[in-house]
Amino acid sequence: MGLIEIENLSVTFRAKGREVRAVEGVSLTVGERESYGLVGESGSGKSTILRAICGMAPVTGGQIRIGGEALRMPRGPGFSRRVQMVFQDPYASLHPRHTIDRTLSEPLAIHRIGGSDAKVVKALTDVGLPASFRFRYPHQLSGGQRQRVAIARALMLEPSILLLDEPTSALDASVQAEVLNLLTRLREERGLTFLMVSHDLAVIDHMCDRVLVMQHGRAVEELARDDLAAARMTTAYARSLFEASADRMLDPAKAP
After folding, report:
1. Strand-pair partners of 194
2. In this structure, is residue 255 part of a structural domain?
3. Distance CA 249, CA 203 (A)
4. Per-residue pLDDT tens over the stretch 145-182
5. pLDDT tens across 20-71, in order?
6. Is residue 94 part of a domain?
7. Which of 210, 213, 209, 208 is nearest to 244 (CA)?
8. How far is CA 88 from CA 8, 54, 144, 163, in A?
9. How are beta strands 193-198 and 35-39 bridged, if at all?
10. What is the pLDDT of residue 251?
11. CA pair distance 69, 5, nearest whole angstrom
12. Before 74, cis peptide (omega within 30)?
């Protein structure tokens, strides 16, 4: 049994009077402390899976289980203590009029957890930011610094699972590796489980133990890291993604 189990998941939206099948019959299992990737082009349904786990997308078929327990709507407070999400755009995900201190303290206040001052300072230190940043606003930080704050916020409740939705795609290339290495370190130190979305196989190769390739809302192929590195894929679509990212995967100077 995996920590995250998704069985025959389907997600259907209604848009402009028609049905859009964003995800169709996708199944996957993520083990405890594993880093699992979802990769595919825009519109492949990979981010929709993360939103379905969080209760932000309408599940029209199948089941999602965390620790063997089926998720129900609405998600209760216990869910956010266990599962947190880091979004693609760190500026859009942080309230522009809230200081970093308020942003990091808010989850603790909602869950009535004390000692916020010390926890905020520790959270900033853990993501490589000085304690003085707690009194700044998002617009006073760089993109990489904002994403570090977003990661710190996700970790305030000490979850065991992080859902990562393209966490570096909005950042400059020079900053991407720093954030990915930070996530890798935090995973090792805290025993975290990652379910990570990316359109870039080079990022997935750097971060993940296994990857599910998606196209048009369906699962195309699952690959272990060794199979990905050796280009042992069986579908033409997975191979096309590999070839598009191969130079960055093979050349450390170009890797994110």
Report:
1. 35, 162
2. no
3. 8
4. 999 999 999 999 999 999 999 999 888 888 999 999 99
5. 999 999 999 999 999 999 999 999 999 999 999 999 999 999 999 999 999 9
6. yes
7. 213
8. 26, 15, 12, 11
9. parallel
10. 47
11. 9
12. yes
Q: Are 58 and 21 in contact (CB under 8 A)?
A: no
Q: Is the pLDDT of residue 256 over 70?
A: no
Split into its structural domains, the chain has a count of 1
| The two three-digit tokens of residue 42, written as one number | 């825009």
Q: Could you list the residue range(s) of the whole structural domain that residue 41 is in?
A: 4-250
Residue 81, domain member (yes or no): yes
Could you tell me if 160 and 1 are in contact, meaning their C-beta atoms sit under 8 angstroms apart?
Answer: no
Helix axes 173-190, 143-155, angle to 10 degrees: 20
CATH number at residue 201: 3.40.50.300
- The answer to whether 243 touches 199, Cβ cutoff 8 Å, is no
Residues ≥6 apart with Cβ < 8 Å to 70: 63, 64
Within 10 angstroms of residue 234's Cβ, the number of other Cβ atoms is: 10
pLDDT tens digits, one per residue of 215-253: 999 999 999 999 988 889 999 999 998 888 877 664 434
- Average pLDDT of the segment spanning 86-90: 90
Residue 256 belongs to a domain = no
Instruction: Give the tokens for residue 199.
Output: 């359109």
d(CA 245, CA 205): 10
Order of strands, sheet of 69-70, starting from the edge strand that comes earlier in the sequence: 18-30, 4-15, 59-66, 69-70
The two three-digit tokens of residue 43, written as one number: 């519109």
pLDDT > 90? residue 201:
no
